[in-house]
Design goal:
Layout lengths: L4 E4 L6 H9 L19 H16 L4 E7 L5 E11 L5 E8 L8 H16 L4 E6 L4 H9 L3 E12 L2 E11 L16
Parallel strand pairs: 4-5
Antiparallel strand pairs: 1-2, 2-3, 3-4, 5-7, 6-7
Amino acid sequence: MKKRLEIRFLELSDYLVWKEAYENQSSPRNDWDHSHRKSDTSKIAFKKYLKNNNEQRKIDRAYYYGIFEKKTGALVGFIMAVDVVRSITQSAILGYTLFNNYWGKGYMQEAIIAFYSIAFKDLGLHRLQAGIEPHNKRSLKVAKALGFRREGLSKKIIFLRGDWQDLVQFAITCEDVGIKWKGEAKKNY
């Protein structure tokens, strides 16, 4: 597969592509189209965003990455490992979103495949989990296409759009994608 994307932390020099990504997106297409949210695209807001991301990385809690189109340099979305748990699980929740004007190009599958190396090698994680709303067909399709295991349904587990929502739980481990785990599990008790 030709690598069309670059996944990396955002930097201060990315301000204009970040702002452009939010300002140039299409109208919302469905309930899960989070990219359309009215966002403060000021430089001050961007600096706060970067500061929060850096603080989360420093405490090993969350890692937020931008997904950039190599050919144009455009920011097309985000991928993240959040709620990192080290102890004996070495796991995190996988989050991802694409700006809707980049949907339908296979970018998310490509980004997640590239993210395996980041999560399992660079971050030393063993397992990624993904919670997807049962009616989010596009995201369910991505998880299934990439070999994520369906592990069950969590009822009313997340508060979104003013109400508690169910999530279909999926997971994948480094062994599932052919990466040998080289981290260290530590008991915290």
